[in-house]
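ok so heres the complex, two chains, lmk if somethin looks off
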Amino acid sequence: MKFRLIIDGYRNAYENMAIDEALLFYGKPTIRFYKWRPSAISIGYFQSICEEVNLEECKKQGVDVVRRITGGGAVYHDEHGEITYSFVCPKNMLPEKILDSYKLICSSIAYGLHFLGLEAKHAGINDIVVNNKKISGSAQTRRHENVLQHGTVLLKVDVRKMFSLLKVGEEKISDKAIKNIEERVTSIEKEIGKVKEEEVIEAIKKGFEEGMGIEFHEEGLTKEEIKLAEKLREKYESKEWNFKR
Amino acid sequence: MKVKNGILKGELKVKNGKLIKCTLEIKDGRIKSIKFTGDFFMHPEEKIEELEERLRDIEFDKEKLAKIIFKFFEEVEIIGASREDFVEVIIKAR
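and the predicted structre for the whole thing:
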């Protein structure tokens, strides 16, 4: 299978979500790696922004908030704390069942993380764990006969900051609760020390090459994708979209 | 569970699955408005609004609600929860 590889660096939340949707629309087999600047919270399609996000605190800390096209939970995307990927291809290149395609993509990423020395494996519906602690979460949608799965791989994690931006009950912000979360969530840095971002990308790429037989060629977005993404960015910036639930 | 101004809220954490929340208003024994939120997956996503629309003006009766919800999930895929969970969370809201 031939895939385009886009190593995309920093963009803001609205651009990132607009590009993922534009990629999904055209369905050209692609894996894009990207980062978020400023840091941002993305919430799942079905989540209520007011129930999930401490909007005042986000404003104070300069953190953007965006609703995703995909379901799943709220995620804090730290500017320096994670690598995000999106995986796009026509539906017929993946298993028909959504759960099976999560398994295939997440297992390939987990396999890639092994090259860094991490004992990673796919767990639950959409997670990747190392020593039973979550290191990556993903979400998938299917439109226009194409599939988009995007997800994060944690480079380092600051649970206290994450909790200050998300609405979690007071009892969950207690030191004990934070310790609990710290025991359930991990990052590459926590497991094996600092690793260069390029090395992480290289490892995940290798996971896809060997796990799914993908051949990559580096290439940018097409003119059509850029044009559509510019239009979609307005949606992702709009109150109507972000506050719709 | 009543919150305020007659708005009811229910929450259900699905075992080995996701969280579903439901906010609803009942008037004269019928659902006036209803909204499901949470971290579950539904495909296609925008169908959720159709479900909320179909439940409007329906009598607050478990069997009647279940009939509509089960019919809806014949054509919509849900991941991280079941159709029964959607019925359950409405009942919990009251």
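quick notes: Chain B has a mean pLDDT of 93. thats all i got rn
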